[in-house]
Structure formats: C-alpha cells, structure tokens
Batch of 3 targets.
Target 1
Amino acid sequence: MPMPSEMKMQTTNSGGDSDKRRAQMFELARTIEQRADEPLTLASLAGEVGLSPSRLQKVFKEVLGVSPKTYQDAARMRQFKQSLRQGSGVTDAIFESGYGSVSRVYGEGKRSMGMTPTAYRAGAEGERISYAYRNTSLGLVMMAATDQGVCFVQFDDTADLLLDALQREFPKANLSASSAQHAPELDRWIEALDRHIDSAAPKPDIPLDIRGTAFQIKVWNFLQTIPEGAALSYSDVAKGIGKPKATRAVGTACGKNRIGLLVPCHRVLRGDGQLGGYRWGLERKQALLAKESQRTTRQTDQT
C-alpha cells in the first residue's frame, strides 16, 4: 500500500490514462457490488474492461487495495449480514446472497465476523469472550478476546466502565474474566501489550478478531500498515484504500475502532497536522505518538 509521499506523487503525476483506468476500476467495483450474488469470474470481468485477467488482477488491486474476488467476497458478506439484520433466516440469507453452500458461508463468516452467522444475527449470543485489565502509564486498559483473537482493547477510568463498554459491544455474549488456567493466551497478550505501552518492547504479534462493515475493515487493515513513528492524514488513508473522496467516512471508521493500539487509529491526524479526534482522549493520543516517536528515534540512533 502506498505511503504518504507516494500518494502525493501519484496525485501530482497521474495522467489522463491513469485517471481513466482508476475510474474504470471504480465502475467495475460498483458492478461487482450489484452482482455480488452471481458467479463472477476474473476472465468475465476482464472482458468487460478490455484487459487480460492477469492485468485486471494487478490494476484492480493497485486501485482498490484488494483483488476482484476479495472485493466480491466482502460485498457478498455485506449482503448476507444485511439479510440477517432484516430478519431473514440464516439458510435463506445464505442463498439470497449467492453462496453456493451453507459450509462455505460459515467458513467465510468466521473470517469476516469472528463468529458464526447465527451468532452474529443473535447479537453474539453464546459467544465466549474473556477479558483482562492492566494499569498502564496511559491508564487502565481492558483487552478481550474470542477464540479467534483479540476483539476489544479500550481505555477508561474504571473497570466497571470498561466492562459496561464490553457488554454494549457484545450484549449477548458470555463474558468472563480471564484466568491463566483457562485462557493463558489472553494474559500473555495483555502483558505483551503492557510492555509495548510502557517500555521499548516491540508491538506484540497478536491475532485479531476484527468485525465491522467491509469499508471499516478495509480502513482498519490499512491502519495496521502505518509504521510506528509515522502518521498519516485522514485524506492519506482515504487515498490509500482507493477511496479518495471518503475522508469523512475514514474518520468515522477510526472513531468506531474497538481495538485500540493494535489497530493504530492514533496514527491518523487532521490534514493540518493537528491531532484530530480520538475516542480515548487526545492526551492519550499525543502520549502514544510521543512514545512511538521516541522509540523510533532511539532505534535509528542505535543503527
């Protein structure tokens, strides 16, 4: 994915052919969304825009950040989730959204939603989520995880407030405090995160259970590519995900991020360089950026 300097270069130097090709890819993306329930092939899509399948694969990914198949999978999953929210039964929603089998959507559903489709429709009913707290230099933090990975990292003033926030996010899940006996991974993860916040320890490699709309997930995945010590503007992120006019929507997605620090929305600033918003307070955002800048400077000096 392009870094800020590359984005600016692309904006400045893009010619008519490049602009035409980008517009063509966005139009094809709209076609994929409208026909997400159909069995689209790379060859058939390539024929619609006069490119070879391999060339389409490359250009589409350059413009939108994902392959045509991944884009269609996300659009189909969005249709499926919408059908569930509107009250369709799980089996009906599966076939209405174009999935060829129940087993296929359950596999994709777990990857996209971190839970089975039935659990998603029921508000995570029956989902097991373990949580733990730690006091850090930035305040009290809670981390919570499903069996897929970390689904929640947030700060607040008290444990009760954090538990209330977790319950609002997953109102029908079975929540339980983590114990080393039953969920040792969560304790290790939060200890690694604590070391990362309070010392020079590197960012822990922790599996994430990210759930949201296709657009939100695209933004959150992009945020994870921003290196420590760097910061982008909301406009940079919008360009980076191939949605240059979606600056406001990017800001909204950052504000709805449930997994602080590990999905580093604190590395996104306003276009004028000001901090902008941060759901856990601007003081924490400023402190995080300062810590990361100091770590990066030390690492550079040592090399």
Target 2
Amino acid sequence: MTWGNQNTEAEAHEQLSYAFDAGLNFLDTAEMYPVPPVKETQGRTDQYIGSWLKTGRIKREDVVIATKISGYSVLQTYLRNPPETTRITKAQIKASVDASLKRLGVDHVDLLQIHWPDRYVTLFGASSYDVAKEREVDISFEEQLRGLDDVVKAGKVRYVGVSNETSYGVSEFAWAAKTLGLPKIQTIQNCYHLLYRTGYETNLAETCRRHDVSLLAFSPLAGGALTGKYLNGDAPKNARFNLFPGYMERYYQTQAKTATQEYVELAKKHGLTPTQLALAWCRSRWFVRSTIIGATSLPQLKENLDAFSVELSPEVIEGISQVYKKYRDPNAIA
C-alpha cells in the first residue's frame, strides 16, 4: 500500500520480483491504495502490479491476487464514477471489481474482500462501541452477499472475504450464506500483532473457527513500530510515521512504546531482531493462515521474508506472554 506514494513503479517491480523469486504466491491490494488515500494517487498500487504482471516474470495462474472494495465512506467518493458515498451495494461491488480488473490487467481476482464494514463498527484502535455513531440505513448482509455472488458467477472473482470485521459480522455473513445459498466468507483480514491481540484472540478466534474462516493477519509489525525504529527518535525521515504526522498514532502512545521497548529487549536477549520476534510469533499462532507483510525498501522486504524461517523457543514464547500480561491493549484509543 506504499506503491504509488512512497515507492516508485520500478521499486514496486523490484520488490515483486524478489518476493516471488523467494517463493511467495499471495499478493494483497485494494482499490483505495496507496495509503494515505487521496484522489490523485488512487489506483496506482494496482497499476504498478498490473505493469509488473505484463512483464511475464510470473504466470497469472501462479499468483493469488486479493483485492478489497472500500466500505462506507463519505471521504472517498472519488472511487466511484460518478462520485458517491462508497457503500457495499450490488452496483458498487460490480463497479469496483471492473475498475480493479482494468487497473490490474487481469480477467479475474482470486479473492475479493470488503475492506471494512458498510455498517458502523469500531476501527483502528477505537476502544468502545458508540451507539450514537450507528447509521440509520445499512446495506443488508443479504444484499452484500448477492452483490458478491454476481461477480463470482460472472467469473470475475473466485472467493470472497471480509476485513476489519467483527464476530457479529462474520456470523451474520455465515448465516446468510448458509440459509440463502450465497457465497461463503472464506477469509477475514484483520489487524493482528504483538500490540493488538485481544481484538482477535477472544471471541473472533472462536467465531472464525466455527465458521471455517481463515485469518489473514495484516500489519504484523504494527506499521513498522515493532521493529523498534521509532523508539529513540532516530527513524529515517522517510519512515511513514515521520512522513505522515498522526498516521497510526496509536502505536506511538506512551504505553505502546513502553510495550514495544520490552519486546525489543526480549528479542535482543534471545539473539533475535525485533522483526524476527514479531513476524515469527504471528506466524506461529494456530489461527493465522497467512501473515501479510509490506515494505518500502528491498532490505526491509528481505528482513521480513527471512523472519519466516525463524522458530521461536518456548522461552521466547513465555517471555512474550509475560510482556502481554502487563500490556494487554497498549494501543487502545479512548
């Protein structure tokens, strides 16, 4: 999601070639990328992926392409033509998929995910559900699934999933799919990392297990915070938190930084890098089916990939548990 903003097309191609040469086969994008989202750059990530696919470095059938349709937003009206509030309606699902396929230069995507719910939910560190923020009209789960069913039947999408979703949403989608004979939600792409565990590990873990929905964990490094590079004020000027003041600010609050410092010290104690600790731990969780990484430089990408060959010892896992007991939700925003 940095390609087209922090990264050039050539840099995106370099990362893609390296990653797939290393054995990766899954690629996740979204109609709103790059981030932070603005009208002028919207869609560039897809375009860079599309131009790389045209080079023939890899066969289309050897890459699993996932994309996402944006949920409710009065800010990103430019995603639609003519502009309108983004919703998960049948018409907008079709329009989103058609535009994504055109940018990517492919005839289908393997996984289409609802980027965030059409209804109001707590997102991105918000700590409690606020009834006052509920909207009068939500697109029903049935209509959303029927819209997804349309693009599946048209051969434009193979499977469907959700992102930034709750136990309630997963259960409603599962029930509607089962009772109405509509596409089953296969995946959930939610934030999951050492600084944010309770959002998934409690009832969502059970809900997804019961409904056979696989977690695609995003932001396993907490936007780069868990590398430790922001702790001492010496992060590069082009690092995201420095480039975009206020971006993911929940990860550099006092308690989050204190927890990160302890994870960094734990990693060093056992001869690991902070990146190895965070990514190897995420991969080791029983409910994680894929860990989605991102990078703005090739050295970062190499370090991320190398971390997946690390197996954490019982002593390290116990050390992580001890830190977690002290900082259960350090990035919560009141």
Target 3
Amino acid sequence: MQTRQLGQSDLLVTPICLGTMTFGEQVGERDAHAILDRAVARGVNFLDTAEMYSVPARKETFGATETIIGRWLAARPGMRQKIVLATKVSGPSRGMPWIREGAGMTQEDIVASCEASLRRLQVEVIDLYQIHWPERNVPAFGQVYYDPTKERTKTPIYEQLEALNKLVRQGKVRSIGVSNETPYGVHEFVRVAEQYELPRIASVQNPYCLVSRGVDNALDETMHRLGVSLLAYSPLGFGLLTGKYDESGTSGPGAPKEGRIAKYESVRSQRWGRPEALAAARRYNALAREHGLTPTRMALAWCYGNWRVASTIIGVTSVAQLEEDLDAWGTALSPELLAAIDQVRWELRDPAA
C-alpha cells in the first residue's frame, strides 16, 4: 500500500488504519499485541486510538487501549518511527464523569488529556491529535436533527485551537484533526485557523459505510474544497455489513454473542441497532453474494475505493479478522455493482446516519 498525505499536513498514512477501541475489552493485551504486530507486518503504518477507549466506555477500562499500545511500543524499540499514531481528546462528558466533569472542554482540559495520553502511550509526541466529538451541540451518534435550544457551548473553536496550538508549539502534537463533525464545524475550524494563524485540521474522522453515508450530504464537498482528509470509521457498520446478523438479527437468542451490537445494549440503542439499519444491511449483503463477493469484502472495497476516503479505519478482534479485512484491499467493484449499491441507497437512504 502506498501512503497518502493527510490533508495539508506532513503526515503520510496508509489507506488502511488499524482502529483499536476493542483492545482492553473484547481483546486482551496479548492478542492486541499480536494484531498490532501483524498489521505492521502487512504494511499498515497508521494506528488510531482515543483516551476514552476501550468501548463500550467504562470507568474501569478508561485509558486501557492507550496503555496496551504504550506497552507494545515500549517492548519494540524502533517501532515508534515506523507508525503514524493518532489519538483523541474526548469532548464534553456525555455521561462519563471519569473523563472530566462539566459540560465544557476548556483549554486546560485539552492539555491535561493530551499529557495523560502521552504517558499512557509512552511516547513524546502524538502524530495526529483529534477532538473526539464537538464541544458544541450537534446531532451525532444517532441523533438526526440539530436543535438550537440545546446549545451549551462553553469553549469557542478559537480557544480549542489555541490549546492545540500550545501542544504543537511544545512539540507534543504534530498535526490535529476533528471527529464526528459537521460541514459547518470543519469549515469553521479551517476558517478560524487561517484567520488567526493557528494549526489547521488535517482530517475529520466520521462514520462512513453503506448504511451510513451522511458524508455524501455536503461534508464531502467541504472536505474537498478545504483540503481536509476523511478518516472513515465503522466501514462494516459495527458488523451489520459482515452478514453475521442476517439470519438472527442483532438481539435475541440467535444473535452472535461475540458481536458488539449483540453484546452491548448501549450500541443497540444507537444508530447501528435500528431495525431499518439491519434491513438495509441485509439488502447490501445479498447484493454482495449475488456478485460473488462476501459482504465484508464488498463493504470494505466500496470504502477503500471511494475518492472521499483518505484512510479507512478497521476494527478487529482477531488476527483472522485483520487478515480478511486487509485481503479486501485492491478489490475492484464493477460499474454495475456500484450502480446497484447506489440504487439501494436511493430506496433506503442512510438508516444508520
């Protein structure tokens, strides 16, 4: 895999990124290290994590994923120079007081979170430091409509960029990004940065898959015109697009117990657990089989080959899953299949948006 420039930064990343939020919950440390070793051996140079991981978020596992990665790096001299390491500062609490109290995200919060991540990761610099979700009120994580009456902003975008600028000047962060953002948010981060000569975001990390194509509704134009790269997460729709739930559904006695949607109520209650999302996934999975592909291969190939995507974040719980996801790289989807995919979207839209 050739590397790609991330936005207007100097970061060069592989088009596949290893997401690690399962480490410390579904995946133990020994298996996590094996997955990391194999990903690097297969050519992946890009790792993504966050201070709030493992998922689902719990006080007992807060910071566990970064700690696991830190011990992996410490045990492998020279590995740090081979990878681009990304992590995230959590936005306002969202019911997680063990991260921070209050509704805001102050400059002090951002700096303290970054320094804690550096300690857990056992590194001196984070290559890509991202804001995990907006400080302001936005429709995210399954919410559909923006509601101005819910605005509780405490920290303007300018102040957030000032804090990130401090970290860049201190050599603790190389580049910055955002996540779960809107077209307005991406544009405003770039506008404010250019107006005040502050660090410019290199990327936006948002969900993007066959059952959740909200990126295509104006965010893609914003990114293209502003030179901001997309890091696509949940390309398999939290497992919906692997076909594992096609027969059993996402809950009940027949559902695969190892699946995140089946295992965690907090996930089922959000976008991925909607009946409409499962129904759409079944349509796409059937379409893949009709064209001689596994659902996983088609869903990943669609994301890997999409002009909007700089790097696709894959999350796995075993080396076998990692191999399957990486083997999908290079799969070309025919014009006929792409047209059929768009026809399903025309009918069913984005049920997991």
